[in-house]
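seq:
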Amino acid sequence: MPNHFFCKIVVTFWHKSQIFFLSLHANLIQNGMKRMIFLVALLSAILSVSAQDNPYIVKTKGVKKPVVNKVADSQKPVEEEAEPTDFMGKNFRFYSMCDWKEGMRFMVIPEKYDMLVNTFRDAETGKEVSSGILRHHIMVYQGHEDMPNGRVHVNFTCETNGKNYYYQLPNGTFEDYCYGKLGVPTLAYLGDVDKARELLMGQTMLTRTQLYRVDTEYDGDGYKEVTVDKNIPVVVKAIGVGTRSFPVKIIVEDENGNQFYQSVAMSKTNCGMRDDEFIVDNEKFLFQGSFDFTGANMSVSDNVKEYINQTVYTKHPTSMSSKGSGKVRDMKVPRFTGFIIDEIAPVKNSAYYTLTLREVESRRIYYKDVIFREEEVLNSRNASDDDYFGYIFGMGEGSAKSTSKETRAAIREGRVIPGMSKEEVEMAMGEPFRKVVDSEGADLWMYARSNNVILDVWFTDRGVVKLAKARKANSKSSKK
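struct:
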């Protein structure tokens, strides 16, 4: 079979396009079914070997045996910095294109759009080269060049095949272009990957989000999302290349042998995203949004440590996250639920702490992010009462020690029954919109309910509920 025919099949295989199937159909007729099946099988085997030999392509356990990085294994773990922010700042510097140095290494990681709009041209012929053909090739930066026609070429040497390529800037001078975040499409910065391997391989860290990924394809980029607990210890098992936007793929393993990964941005060099885009759903794709250090880096102040192992109860309904049936989900926790605080972990670059709470009765584990100081809640634009520890929780078992089971059930359901104390009424109903004292000196609290109804709650002189009665809002107050 002629060599040019074999090359044609290689090109069409990388494209995964309709061209392949048309060519395949034509050659099936011309050369016979057996010959083509043999060729495709041989090509698949070659590509599989190529993927195995690329140390930057790593997969979670289950899809294939984890890749062993000989360079990283020979390195001794580097001690963590005293402050995680310093660790990132000192080790993962952002390089704008203006600061790129010759020899900086990148990998071509095309996305769907990049298959339609080619990024590179062959330096010898000036013709465009398919991003699919260059997928997973390593490009070494060789500086930029002003051309006679006024265009600017950003030059690279392909470490994988030894050829020279360039990216032509869409318009303007290099200085006009290089200060932005656009960079060169398809390229994931390998400097961050190499540095992360040097510093993080084998390290034990904590999970800081609940959403991670597991590989589903050996030769592709398929994955499925999985949910895990926050603040569980995990060990870094492999580090490879992720995507252009999130170049560092970190595979970790929990104490049960489950592996999952996150592709994260470290320095954001050439990631093509602005800083303000790493919020909400994308926050987990920052290193500090998915992982945290253990030990000294997770130290908390003495006044916060005092809450560890303390018993608390919820004074108001509040949202928490909990794990059940293997999944982590948000749940509404009712009033008067008792917990023991097992762990407290600070959330970096914020006033929040993550509480690990064990429910007193069921022993189920819950998680809640809180702020301990009320003034920090008041000074924050995004924080609310539900973020303030003192608003959500009461210390000890509260009135649960002397409260009947019936009263506790009423509090959780938001009802008022005779015999409740004023504190228990507030826990069940919240603050009344009006408090009055009747002619005989008895306290009357009024609560606005739905459907234009007001609930009147009368107390005895001992401060316990004597009567709770609903009425229409436009009717006169009932007499005692």
